[in-house]
Amino acid sequence: MGVRKRNSANLRKEAKKKIAFAKLNNCPTSPRKMRLIADLIRGMDVERALSELKLNPKEASGRMEKLLLSALANWEAKNEGKRMDEGNLYVSEVKVDSGRMLKRVQPAPQGRAHRIRKRSHHVTLVVDSKNTDNN
Asked: Does the reported pTM lie above 0.85?
């Protein structure tokens, strides 16, 4: 690895240490279903996003709520002196990427077969405070 590449990798690593995020990998639902929930809470305050997810009837909202709580716990661990109430937190970034796809075959009439693609996805949720005056 070259010096410039190593230096930029170290800078990215240091920047990542300051960000509070949570990841969910290979969640066995379609990415399209999770993107509906992600678009719902992107940019919201944390308290409002938690209440929206709790009241939403979709199955993906339960998983997103759990992921948001994990990101909040990570934020509290990085900012040891602060609580999430006084942090003025919001959901700054939510990314939903497609994960692995399980390919299955379903028998069809007259000796044919249909392909079934069981999709999964990865979700990355980033929580940040609105006042970014980190001392």
From this structure: no
